Amino acid sequence: MKFTFPPSAKPDTIAINDWMSWTWQLRHSLKSLEDFSQSFELTEDEVRGFAGADQVFQIRSTPYYSSLASRTNAVDPLRRILMPSGRELTPGAQAMLDPLGEKRNNPAPRIIHRYPDRLLFLVTDTCSVYCRYCTRKHFTGGDQAFVRSAEYDQALSYIKSKTGLREVILSGGDPLTLSDAILDRVLSDLRSIEHVEIIRIGTRMPVVCPMRITEDLARMIRKHKPVYLMTHFNHPRELTREAAAGLECLVDHGIPVFNQLVLLNGVNNHPAIIQALSRRLLFLRVKPYYMFQCDPSEGTDHLRTSIDESLEIQRELWGRLSGLAMPSLSVDIPDGGGKAGLVPNFEVEKSPGRRAFVGWDGVRAEYIDPAKSERLLPFDAETYSREWDELKNAKL
Ligand SMILES: *Cc1c(COP(=O)(O)O)cnc(C)c1O
Ligand code: SF4
Q: Is residue 94 included in any domain, yes or no?
């Protein structure tokens, strides 16, 4: 079966050339109650959200993304992502401004360094849609469209000084809100650093403004290979014809694309939705990567699923979704503990030398477990051991 990717709902009054221009989309962002009330019949709860939520977190959407949400139905999944709610103002169970303790792992301006071999470089504060569940509300939505040059230099020096680093993840904000010329410069500067092997770009632009993905952009990124692009689709309805074209353009230019999703109450907390999303992404040659538990940032309690519910979804996907399309469930340990993988338990019994499992469709069997073996190093282990020790001993 092949999938169809329907076009977005462009209003007739807007010329196609405008609609397909990413700068037009950003210039015509919806920001105020007035803007949104032209495209949506707002509920009382949403109006309350506008009255206060900008203190919690800015409000913004591209015309493109808001055209995918329902005008009349307030419980529409995409509408829940982009539209503020009065519930954001209720103090949350764990309401944290900085759920990931990123301020603590912030050794240089714009740098979040939590693992020895990889770090985040927050190159902008701006996003083209402010997702109501955003984990980085204290950084995102600030006023820096691009890092100040003094901060940029300090961040770059930090990356140069940490020779144990292997990977730099551009994040923000959304790095693809920057122009091709600025991105080109950032990628060149990173590529000139000897120990940086891999560059990742974390972006939601392919979802909320897919017209950002142009041949020029893809060619520019390809120049700096290997660059991985991490995108963030949460729902199959976000996969429009425009989004599919953007993703195919990236992959056709040899840029590997991965998807990270967040499980959200009333948006995608059903295995059928995750399955549909993952199969369509795989069809477009995008590898589903992470499925995140929603972080307890300010004003997200009504959007969060319980860990048991998330595990249940992951469990139901096993056996019913190709391993190629399977995202791994993960929770960010609050206060900067890093990620923790959450794995559904298939093991039902454990005794010395014997482990018993029940498979996805109920087959029970025992695995006879050998004694723990001595670790025999293959003859050329020297090389790999050196790499391993280097990374193992690298300091943050
Ligand atoms: C998630 C994250 C990474 C990347 O982790 P991977 O498991 O390699 O995708 C790196 N640094 C920080 C601070 C992160 O939050
Ligand atoms: S695109 Fe990412 S950083 Fe920006 S608001 Fe959405 S979740 Fe937050």
A: no
Same domain, 350 and 337: no
Segments forming the whole domain that contains residue 306: 103-341
Whose alpha carbon is nearest atom 10 of ligand 1?
119
Give 103-129 pLDDT, tens digit per residue. Answer: 778 899 999 999 999 999 999 999 999
Please identify which residue in the block is written with the tokens 């190093």.
377
Residues 163 and 236 in one domain: yes
Q: Is 350 labeled as catalytic in the residue annotation? A: no
Shared-domain flag, residues 358 and 304? no
**Catalytically annotated residue among 127, 209, 249, 294:** 127
Name the closest-CA residue to atom 1, ligand 2. Answer: 204
Residues within a 6 A CB radius of ligand 2: 127, 130-131, 134, 136, 140, 174, 204
How much distance in Å is there from the Cα of 119 to the middle of ligand 1?
7
Is the overall model pTM greater than 0.90, yes or no? Answer: yes
In eight-state DSSP terms, residue 255 is: -
Active site residue 114: yes
> Do 144 and 85 reside in the same domain of the chain?
no
User: Is residue 222 among the annotated active site residues?
Assistant: no
Contact 336, 128 (CB under 8 A): no
Cis peptide upstream of residue 338 (ω within 30 degrees of 0): no
- Looking at the structure of the chain, the number of domains it has is 3
**Residue range 350-374: mean pLDDT, rounded:** 94
Q: Coil, strand or helix: which one is 328?
A: strand
In sequence order, the β-bridge partners of residue 231 are 259
**Domain check: are 152 and 111 in the same one?**
yes
Computed over every residue of the chain, the mean pLDDT equals 94
Active site residue 212: no
